Amino acid sequence: ENHIVAETSLKGKKVLVTAGPTYESIDPVRFIGNHSTGKMGFDIAEAMADKGAEVILVTGPTHMKNRNTTIKNIKVESAQQMYDVCHQYFDSVDVVVAAAAVADYKPKVVAAQKIKKNESTFTIELEKNPDILASLGERKKQQYLVGFALETENEIEHAKAKIKKKNLDLIVLNSLNDEGAGFGKPTNKVTFIDKDFNIFPQELKSKEAVAEDIVNKIKEHYEI
Ligand code: CTP
Ligand code: CA
């Protein structure tokens, strides 16, 4: 009789989260990477697991650790590897949250041996990586697809274009123009935009609280 069915439950929902940077090899000892710590994606995975969801967390190189032992963490290095894992699990999941900072480009050729220094300048030719989220958008059936956008100008317009291009249900816009938001800061200020282009500006808050807001926003989709 004391049973309380949590309204907050995501029990029975399977969620795929991507997090962290990707590393793109140049030669056996060097790579192209970025400064992503993976914190946002890890916080989202934890918030999802706290609400009972089954979480698959696909991460590029990061030192972050999971608190919830139920989270299945699959570690990758490159964008291509992250792409392969995401497509392997996509059919079976209900929600995808793409929080990874995927390298847009990778070296066209990976040298088999360590590159020796010679000339005074050195050029590496890069080619585009696959857009993981857009490719999932093309395959979308039941899945609720959430992406991120980091913009420095015309933020809303650029974010809306990403919703369309990647067939998203929700985008989380990170604005670098906001005081207290962005890389290396403990806080973040985001704006949610849904697929109908409704705009929901959020308060400046801790990254954990932003993760909680994102999960609650996704949850609304299953409550209507
Ligand atoms: N993303 C992805 N695969 C890529 C690049 C991006 O899955 N190769 C995802 C990111 O995880 C994020 C969203 O797409 O959820 C938007 O990433 P962002 O870098 O803002 O956009 P891009 O499409 O790469 O465009 P640009 O960097 O030119 O703004
Ligand atoms: Ca990009």
TrEMBL record:
State which Enzyme Commission number(s) the record gives: 4.1.1.36, 6.3.2.5
Please tell me where CTP binds in this chain.
104, 114, 130-133, 148, 162, 166
> Which keywords belong to this entry?
Decarboxylase, Flavoprotein, FMN, Ligase, Lyase, Magnesium, Metal-binding, Multifunctional enzyme
Q: Which reaction does it catalyse?
A: N-[(R)-4-phosphopantothenoyl]-L-cysteine + H(+) = (R)-4'-phosphopantetheine + CO2; (R)-4'-phosphopantothenate + L-cysteine + CTP = N-[(R)-4-phosphopantothenoyl]-L-cysteine + CMP + diphosphate + H(+)
Segment Phosphopantothenate--cysteine ligase: which positions?
A: 15-224
Give the cofactor note text: Binds 1 FMN per subunit.
Its cofactor is: FMN; Mg(2+)
Give, as in the UniProt entry, the pathway in which the protein acts. Answer: Cofactor biosynthesis; coenzyme A biosynthesis; CoA from (R)-pantothenate: step 2/5; Cofactor biosynthesis; coenzyme A biosynthesis; CoA from (R)-pantothenate: step 3/5
Please state every residue range assigned to the domain named DNA/pantothenate metabolism flavoprotein C-terminal. Answer: 10-220
Gene Ontology molecular function, alphabetical? phosphopantothenate--cysteine ligase activity; phosphopantothenoylcysteine decarboxylase activity
What family does the database annotate? In the C-terminal section; belongs to the PPC synthetase family. In the N-terminal section; belongs to the HFCD (homo-oligomeric flavin containing Cys decarboxylase) superfamily.
Primary role: Catalyzes two steps in the biosynthesis of coenzyme A. In the first step cysteine is conjugated to 4'-phosphopantothenate to form 4-phosphopantothenoylcysteine, in the latter compound is decarboxylated to form 4'-phosphopantotheine.
Q: Provide the protein name.
A: Coenzyme A biosynthesis bifunctional protein CoaBC
